[in-house]
Amino acid sequence: MRKITQAISAVCLLFALNSSAVALASSPSPLNPGTNVARLAEQAPIHWVSVAQIENSLAGRPPMAVGFDIDDTVLFSSPGFWRGKKKLLARKRRLSEKSCVLGKNEQWLG
């Protein structure tokens, strides 16, 4: 019985080792191509808009509230106001009521 088991095992092993493994060619999954320095350095031409052009584009529309960030702090003013609220205003008050927050914000941002 033992010899039969060994013989069957040997035959199975020979068949397993004799067959060649075929690897299927896989195509890579599409990835985000990303960017490079040359593409990052490209700048679109500046499109200047006059007040008259804005006025003409808004003709016939109802009044609306609009804000313009004229000192280029749009990326940094929110963290400054958050810090001012936490540091200077312990009680719940409106930040606009405290002009000292605006001054401190400019100091923090340099």
The tally of helices reads: 5
Order of helices and strands: HHHHH
Bin the strand percentage.
Answer: under 5%
Alpha-beta content class? mainly alpha
Question: What is the percent of helical residues?
Answer: 40-55%
Q: Mean pLDDT, nearest integer? A: 71
- What is the total tally of β strands? 0
Contiguous runs where pLDDT drops below 50 for at least 5 residues = none
Structural shape? elongated
Radius of gyration (Å): 35 Å
- How far apart the termini lie comes to 89 Å
Signal peptide: 1-25
Enzyme class: hydrolase
GO molecular function, one term: transferase activity
EC number: 3.1.3.2
Show the helix and strand layout.
Elements: H1 2-18, H2 37-41, H3 51-57, H4 77-88, H5 99-109
Helix pairs in contact: 4-5
Task: Give a description of the structure.
- With 110 residues, the protein is mainly α.
- The chain has a domain at 74-110.
- Helix content is 47%, strand content 0%.
- It contains five helices and no strands.
- The radius of gyration is 35 Å and the shape is elongated.
